[in-house]
Design a protein that fits this description.
Blueprint (H helix, E strand, L loop, with lengths): L15 E5 L2 E9 L11 H8 L2 E7 L2 E3 L13 E6 L1 H10 L3
Antiparallel strand pairs: 1-2, 2-5, 3-4, 3-5
Length: 97
């Protein structure tokens, strides 16, 4: 799996939304908070439990634009997800310390 290591911070990902058929889908960036229920979950667990797609992961290893499902989330990791508004709300609730 290719990882890209940058010497500068990533540019901010703006949240966006668009319709696919009748469903409004959103792209959103989330930084995993220390002490949240996201810490220790794999990307596969997150995708399965919340019905979302992780399309980018930035962690200690660098940036992965096609992250492996077995990546385990740690505090301060950043993920970009593709999900419905309801799912984003549930994700944000899980990300509370």
């Amino acid at each position: 799996m290719a990882h890209f290591n940058y010497t500068h911070p990533l540019p901010k990902v703006k949240e966006g939304a668009g319709y696919v058929g009748d469903t409004l889908l959103n792209v959103s960036q989330v930084t995993v908070r220390a002490g949240s229920r996201l810490v220790g979950k794999t990307l596969a667990q997150l995708e399965r439990e919340l019905d979302l797609s992780v399309i980018m992961h930035r962690g200690a290893e660098g940036v992965d634009l096609h992250p492996a499902p077995e990546i385990v989330l740690a505090a301060e990791d950043c993920i970009v997800v593709f999900a419905s508004l309801d799912t984003l709300n549930r994700l944000r609730q899980l990300n509370q310390p």
